[in-house]
Amino acid sequence: MKFPKPYALKSIADILDCSYVGEDDYQVYGANEIHVVEKGDIVFVDHPKYYDKALNSAASVILINKEVNCPEGKALLISKDPFSDFNKLTSFFKPFKPSKQTISPSAIIDKSATIQPNVFIGNDVKIGKNCIIHSNVSIYDSCEIGDNVIIHSGSIIGADAFYYKNRPEGYDKLKSGGNVVIENDVEIGASTTIDKGVSGSTLIKTGTKIDNLVQIGHDTVIGKKVLIAAHTGIAGCCIIEDDVTIWGQVGVSSGLNIGENAIILAQSGVSKSLDANKTYFGTPASDIKKKYREMAHIANLPKLVKQLNDVTRNK
């Protein structure tokens, strides 16, 4: 999430009503989560376990709940509740803007695109050449659709991230200020949902084809020419590299990397990152040759148990 212009550290501290360590006019350019943070950005951290990661990240400003030694060349914002203050920044720089029309007048839609009836297109959306957006699709604010993209009926592009902090009084939502970017020649099946990034972009790269009823979580990056079959769920902050094939009813945990040309067979559960150029199956997913050997051994267990019992009885 980049700010519309650079802000002085003191100005950001005034927005948050918090103290700070650093020069008043120290320049701040945006606010991002740790996995997408860049120089000039604010990153938040509220647990000692992650202090070092945040302080040593690319972030220039650390929004933190304890005054610590400030790394050289950086600044601190001292907050009682960094999670809530990060939400304040999102609300200030990316406030929710209610739509007054089904297709926002601020949307930029190429004349060659086909928009079917009952499509919702939010504020500042961009839609490229020769796209077909079928009925009952919803495209939330600031999402970007490239050329030759087909989005089938009932799909939702840009819903909020599923990201909550568990507090004694209930779950506190981290507000989403990012978007979804869909590159050229992508097809998205019916009733598929792609969540926006918390502060950056959820990205679907050129040539990828997504089936019906697929869920893609916030800040995930799907590479070029990826195939994803129905009922697959991919959690947030994953990287699916180019030419990966994911068959039906696969589940992928958050923050994982799937290497290029990997194939994940149907109903697999992916709980750790997977190497490139291999085929995977099972829960937890592992190399198919290994998994089939394990299944063969399991199938032989009744026979082995019977043999063991016969030996025991004959003693």
TrEMBL record:
Residues covered by the UDP-3-O-[3-hydroxymyristoyl] glucosamine N-acyltransferase non-repeat region domain: 25-90
Biological process according to GO: lipid A biosynthetic process
Keyword Transport: no
GO MF annotation list: N-acyltransferase activity
Cellular component, GO annotation: membrane
Repeat among keywords: yes
InterPro entries: Hexapep, LpxD, Trimer_LpxA-like_sf, UDP_GlcNAc_AcTrfase_non-rep
Keywords, in A-Z order: Acyltransferase, Lipid A biosynthesis, Lipid biosynthesis, Lipid metabolism, Repeat, Transferase
Matches recorded under NCBIfam families: PRK00892.1
UniProt protein name: UDP-3-O-[3-hydroxymyristoyl] glucosamine N-acyltransferase
Species this chain originates from: Psychroflexus salarius
Lineage: Bacteria, Pseudomonadati, Bacteroidota, Flavobacteriia, Flavobacteriales
